[in-house]
Write a structure and sequence with these properties.
- This protein is an alpha+beta fold and 186 residues long.
- The protein has one domain: Jelly Rolls, CATH 2.60.120.10.
- The chain has 9 helices and 8 strands.
- Strand 4 and strand 5 form a beta hairpin.
- Helix 1 packs antiparallel against helix 2, helix 4 crosses helix 5 and helix 8 packs across helix 9.
Length: 186
C-alpha cells in the first residue's frame, strides 16, 4: 500500500481525492509467473496498480502472441479498451514474474472521477500521455528500421531490458527475436 500512496501523492490531485482513492483500492491480487490477470473475452472490471512484478499485454494472431505493452512495478494496468467500454477484452494480460497488484472497481473509480475534478484532470492527462506514447510506437513500427525502434525503446524505457524476457520485447517491437539479438549486438 505504501507504493500506491507514494504514486497517488505524486499526482496533482486534492488531498480529499487522494484519501478517497487510497480507501477505494481494496482488491488485492497475488499472481504467479504465467498467470493471467485477464483473458480475451473477459470484461475488465478493475484498474490495477502493480506493486511488484511484470506483466505483458498481448493479443493472439495466427496462434502467435503480439505484445502491445507491458506493466511493471509502480504503474497502472488493465485491459484498457474493455475497462473504458465495459465490453469483452480483445487482450490477454499475463504475468512474466510473480506479481502483486492492488485494484479499484471500475464503477467506484468512475464515481471518484465524477466527484473530484482534480482526479478527472489528472486521469485525462495520463490518458493523453498514453495516447501520445501509442502514436509514437505506431509511427516507429510503420516507418523506422528495427535498429531505430530498438534504440528508441532503449532510450525511452531501458529498465524493460532488465525485467522483460527478450522474446517479449522482440514481439513488442514487431521483429523476430533473432533480429532483436542481431541489432542489440551491433
Amino acid at each position: 500500500m505504501a507504493l500506491l500512496k507514494e504514486f497517488l501523492h505524486s499526482l496533482p490531485i486534492s488531498n480529499e481525492a487522494t484519501n478517497d482513492l487510497i480507501n477505494a483500492w481494496t482488491i488485492k491480487r497475488s499472481l504467479k509467473k504465467g498467470d493471467f490477470l485477464i483473458t480475451e473475452g473477459q470484461i475488465e472490471r478493475h484498474l490495477f496498480f502493480i506493486t511488484k512484478g511484470c506483466l505483458s499485454i498481448y493479443y493472439e494472431q495466427d496462434g502467435l502472441e503480439q505484445v502491445v505493452g507491458f506493466g511493471y512495478s509502480q504503474t497502472l494496468i488493465c485491459s484498457f479498451p474493455s475497462f473504458i467500454k465495459n465490453l469483452p477484452s480483445d487482450y490477454y494480460i499475463k504475468t512474466l514474474s510473480n506479481t502483486e497488484l492492488i485494484g479499484i472497481d471500475r464503477t467506484i473509480f468512475y464515481q471518484l472521477l465524477d466527484k473530484h475534478n482534480s482526479l478527472e484532470k489528472a486521469w485525462r492527462t495520463m490518458l493523453e500521455e498514453a495516447l501520445l506514447g501509442r502514436i509514437e510506437r505506431e509511427i516507429d513500427i510503420l516507418t523506422v528500421s528495427p535498429k531505430v525502434r530498438l534504440q528508441r525503446l532503449l532510450n525511452r524505457s531501458p529498465h524493460l531490458f532488465q525485467i522483460v524476457p527478450l522474446k517479449y520485447i522482440a514481439s513488442y517491437l514487431s521483429m523476430a527475436p533473432e533480429t532483436l539479438s542481431r541489432n542489440m549486438k551491433s
